[in-house]
Amino acid sequence: MTTKLNAKPKQPKTVQAVAAKHNLQVGVSANGNLQFKKEPLQMLYELAVGTLFGKSTFYRSSDTLVQNLRNNVRSAVQMDALDFVANLAIHARGEMSIRTIPIVLVVEFAKALREQGKTYPHMRQLVRDVIQRADQINDLYAYSLDVFGDKKNIPMAIKRGVGDAFNKFGAYAFAKYNRDGVVKFRDVLRIVHPVAKDIKQGDIFKKLMEDTLEAPYTWEVELSKNGQLSAAEKKDNKTLWTELVTSGKVGYMALLRNMRNIVQAGVDVKIVQQYVADVISDPKRVAESKQLTFDFVEAYNIIKPLDTKLATATSKAIDASVAYLPQLGERIWIIIDYSGSMGNDTAEAISTSTLLAAALLKASEKADHLAVTLFGSAAKTLRSVDTNNSVLAIQKELLAERKGNISGSTDFQAALRERTKLGFTPDTIIVFTDGEINRFPYGEMQQLTAGNIVKVVVNMHGATTTPLIKENGWFAMSGWTPAMFKWIPAIRNKSTIVDSLSIPYIGIQKAVVAE
Asked: 401, exposed or middle or buried, with CB in 10 Å at 0-12, 13-18, 19+?
């Protein structure tokens, strides 16, 4: 008989042991560590909402990420998770404001169905629904040609869905996006033969076919026209930009991207305030714009050295963009991966994760307790972040700590050991990471199982493996916009995002929302 004094010390749980217990597959992370393979539907969700088309991550090229998406679409179709794929495409395009990947997802979905001899009864509606801007008609059809090789091979459901989408847009939208490209509107019209919903729409189709649709009043068109005038007729930049911004016809995104041009043109400060700054900071216009968070940050970084008022307006826009976030909890612990693989660029993981964390802190200013732990080769906890500051000011404070051993490698164990320094027991834990941790801290993670703690991991890099699994109480999400945190109430009710997106397809008008 072995006494307690002579007992063997408990061995730390290994990835293999936990995987065997929960019947999970083991994989190798990009930096060579054993982790758990993500399930296909979870992986597909993370790729669909967390991948920027054409943008590589630290460990994976853009081509690899898209190939991973294709593979997981095939797996989803094999699993007959057809409604999940459809709902995911609309969620990514609608709520998450992602423009390109949803198009890729829908076309790859159609291809996987054909390869496996299956059909999806809502494919035509899905194609129509995912096209939410006129130029996406051409984008979706051009990608379909790439995938299927020939117009004759493109599934009829795609052709009919594209045809239906032609009736969603008016003359202005078609004229605005009637550009030279591999595929133009008239090319697609010849192939899909849409039936016009009325005489007016039929006239638009006729003009598209004849290439006689009048150019709309846009800043691009007006700049182009002015550039073609003689020196005597040409307007100076100040006059031209003054006319453009006071016309009220320059869209939100165009204003955001042209703030530098407007300032450098010397437009009167009162006009800039009324027609640019006030528009940029208007919460209603911010919500309607559906700009990704880092679009605002890039605009802010460009305009900050040039114009204080516009920089302030852009900062207010960012604050407005996160004002709708749900209450995450009363005792919130945010953990951010500061390792080298999180990158440095504005559109990379480190900037996005700190911005999202700052947004959460700002939105949680009424919580009883807040703490942020930053970790790299070591860890550090901040408990006095001023949530009265702007989101950008909070982010700046967080990024200032990325130095010394609070960078480098990825010691997640060090971060979890900071729990004893919090001074409170968290009811919500949110981890931002690329998942490439150096060891499996099972013991520390087990200490977080007591009580009804909501534990969320935000995957920043489309990794195919993870150390944080739902079997241990972790819920995974991904994305580039704070809109993802609308899932928190569902997660608090123990519903995964995959569960929430696996309901019957109901289309764009009643798209799956994260509430």
From this structure: middle
